[in-house]
Amino acid sequence: MSRASRISQVFMSPNITVPDISRFVHLNEVAPDRYEEAGFGGSANVFTKYTREDGHVLKVAVKCIRPKSTDESEEVSKDKINKKVARELSIWQTLNGGRHIVELLGVFCGIKSIPSLVSELCPWNLQEYLERKTPRPKHIKMLTDILCGLDYMHCGLPSGPIAHGDMKLGNILVTPDETAKLCDFGRSHKRGDPRGEVSHSSVLAGTVRYMSPELFDSNLHGPTPAADMWAYGCIALEVMCRIPPYHETADDLEIIRLITNGQPPSDRPKGARASLVNDGLWSALASCWVKYDRRPTPQECLGQILSMMESGDIPASPVLPDLFPGPEGGSIEQWPDEIPDLKTHLELEEGIGTIASSVRANVWM
């Protein structure tokens, strides 16, 4: 069976009409340390260039799901991946066209014959964007953009609501014009999905810190819009205060215990981290962490924030103080004698690979 035939069978069902653009896509970089660059996480993403029929060349992101290391045969593994990709494609195609949804361009079958999803390439995920020094990030705009994206998913579709299912900073991308867009719909849940079809078969498949208490109920049939709003409150906490949910522990089991015991993701911050959050904004944020049937909808939460902006209670473009100031205010302290200085033992070779990079530090191997 030809590659085109396989693509046709997998993706061109009556409900999915995503073009195969394989002949236009040319891979530039597929090294593992570049996967994070495309903004989708470590499952497998690469930079590419995409040549349209009019000859215009642009960079795109390709999401290629890598097979897990199991005892399954290659054919069984590929069949599972095909089903997973087809399901995500179906949801993404339903959402495609939303202003705050990352644009799906098509499919590509050029990496070990495994189908991949091709989308627009955004320069940052939200975590990277918030670390930007100049110009300053637009914190409130990020909050309202995310709510617009969730409102579209929950209330703006003729086919009914779709729950994202994995809301976190890494699944929100920021375009060059500073518009926040939602991406990664592999764990999303739509009306009519049979039990077990959602790709996260384990209750812990999502990011634990952002999970609401009801998601640990084995009787729950997949993620819900209300669970998305709990996660939105966690994201707002990070955007405005630079504090992750349940920041006092790194143990997932302890986080689960706190969540199921009714502990909110954070108490109200104090000091510099609270400088952008007044009483009204904290109330709106914390309302996302009440019982699932009392959480606000995206539209209700958006209305509260816009009302505070119109009244001047919160500025449209607040400036968060530098929570990690550099040495500009004084000299750097002398290196302690008890800590060995390894500068004579380390040498950075030309062409060395960067493992990670952020505003604060680079890590090489």
TrEMBL record:
PROSITE patterns the record matches: PROTEIN_KINASE_DOM (PS50011), PROTEIN_KINASE_ST (PS00108)
Keyword list, A-Z: Kinase, Transferase
GO molecular function terms listed in the Swiss-Prot or TrEMBL record: ATP binding; protein serine/threonine kinase activity
Domain annotation Protein kinase: ranges: 32-320
One protein family per Pfam: Pkinase
Superkingdom, taxonomy of origin: Eukaryota
Entry protein name: Protein tyrosine kinase
Protein's organism: Rhizoctonia solani
Source species taxonomy: Eukaryota, Fungi, Dikarya, Basidiomycota, Agaricomycotina
